[in-house]
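Duplicate of earlier report; histidine kinase input re-posted below.
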Amino acid sequence: MLTRSTTLTGRVAKTLTLLTLILFLVFSFMAVLIAFIIEDTMIHNVLRQASQQTSYDNSAVKQVTFQELQQLGYTSQSEAQLKNRINAFAEFSADGKHYHFMIVDSGYLVTDSTPLLAVSQRVSGIIKLLLVALVPCSIITILTTRHLSKYALSPFLTLKERFLQPEKNSAELIRENAFIREQDIKQIADELAHALSQKEELLSEQITFNQGMSHELRTPLQSMTHAVELIAIKHPALADQQVYKRLQNSLTKMYRISEAMLWLLSDEPSQNTLSINRHLTSLQDDLHATYHAHGLSIKQIENGQLFLDIPTVVFDFIVYALVNNTVQYAALSKGKKQLQITIDKQQITLTNAYDNHQFEIADGPQHFGLGLLLVTKLAHRFTHRIEIKHDESTFAVSLIAGQQAS
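Output:
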């Protein structure tokens, strides 16, 4: 299942943040551990220096027997076990005091190390100080890693921006790829540009084929349309038959496709300004029939009046193509199927929302093949733009007015 907030930049930032915090905790632990080691080393040096003296009149270090050591509170090992120790130094706590002692031939050198345990006595304060320091360290780390991750991934982010621009063609991308310094990113970019080039060639071939077919079908379509009209005039009862209506709808669809393909490669500008709100109302019966046939509910929201400079037949072709895509997309989900058409001053948006959050998006915007690509080309032909958005719960496709990039 896709997550909206999951990006490579965010993943790298989280990883760097976690790594930095782990290093902070490790170094803090090592610093405290080293302080303990230094503290023990200093006390051991005091005992070692005392062992080199001939007399032990130093009040800080006293020579005692094992019985006297036990009287101080030592109970961990027996005298025989102490004599067999590899390490000559040991320590113990008793009656609120801490003692270090050293095993010598003549007995044991013991010192009350309680006043010398600066680290041990202040360990709770040190831990609190480190925890307090962890807060600003975490904030600085989070802010820093965001910039570091963006810098580290800047070649990838540049690549992403290039290939997500709908107006970019493969030739432009190949030229721009020559300036990529990172060889691994450049290799990926070249492969993507090559794949895009193949896709463009396939689309061009399909458009050329469709245009040729449109020319070939134009005359037969006109003849069939006139014949159907004559049949309706001579046999009015047939006009109400479902078979006749399906035939009429099929001819209308074929005519729409033929005209749209002819407009695609034509240089003639559009002389028609279409009121989308009013025209969409005239299509409502047909659209509702399409939705209801697939068990979908429909809701139309008008937030403003939208006017587009586009031939009516081309707009009809685009709308029905977008409707078919949202219908197909909704058919993939198993939840409640809802479709919404939203119109404002800049765009018309068809949105499919569903309840199945486990639904996975397989191939993104191009999941339905070349259909959306042809629609996109038609929109660009009249300086408009198609935009597709999707996540784990919605699929939205928009026709946006006059926003074709140069």
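DSSP finds 13 helices and eleven strands in the chain.

Merging into the original ticket.
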